[in-house]
Amino acid sequence: MTANKQQRQRLIADWLRGGRIGSQEELVARLGLAGISATQTTVSRDLDELGAIKQRDEGSIRYALPDRIDRSQAGERLDRILGEWVVSIETAGSLIVMRTPPGSANLVASAMDAANLPEIAGTIAGDDTIFVALCDGVTPGAGAQMLRARRAIG
Question: Is the pTM of this model over 0.70?
Answer without folding.
Answer: no
